[in-house]
Amino acid sequence: MAHYAYLLRCADGTFYSGYTTDLQRRTAAHNSGHGAKYTRSRRPVVLVYYESFESKSEALKREAALKKRTHLQKQALADQFSRAESTSSSGSLK
Questions:
Q1: 3-87 architecture in CATH?
Q2: Angle at 9 between CA 4 and CA 11, to 5 degrees
Q3: In whole angstroms, what is the distance from residue 18 CA to residue 37 CA?
């Protein structure tokens, strides 16, 4: 099973960092108001970045590192991911 650390862009322009084993389900949960308290008042949210890991502990470590990044650093990650995704299908959700 894959484990993911991810970034969401909220409607107010802020970012939310999280962990999940199912990106589509978790993003849908955030958008339906069943996600984190932080995202409930900042919907809709858009998945803008994620990384896949083999272990939960690795993914949680990366999530913690993402949470410590500045807004500009998170924006740069999202922009870089978007550019990579547009040139490759490896980052797309199926």
A1: 3-Layer(aba) Sandwich (3.40)
A2: 145
A3: 12
pLDDT tens column, 20-78: 999 999 999 999 999 999 999 999 999 999 999 999 999 999 999 999 999 999 999 99
Cα angle 51-8-14, degrees, rounded to a multiple of 5: 135
How would you classify the pairing of strands 46-53 and 15-20?
A: unpaired
Per-residue pLDDT reduced to its tens digit, 16-34: 999 999 999 999 999 999 9
Question: For the chain, which residues make up each domain, given as ranges?
Answer: 3-87
Residue position matching structure tokens 């949960």? 29
DSSP state, residue 34: -
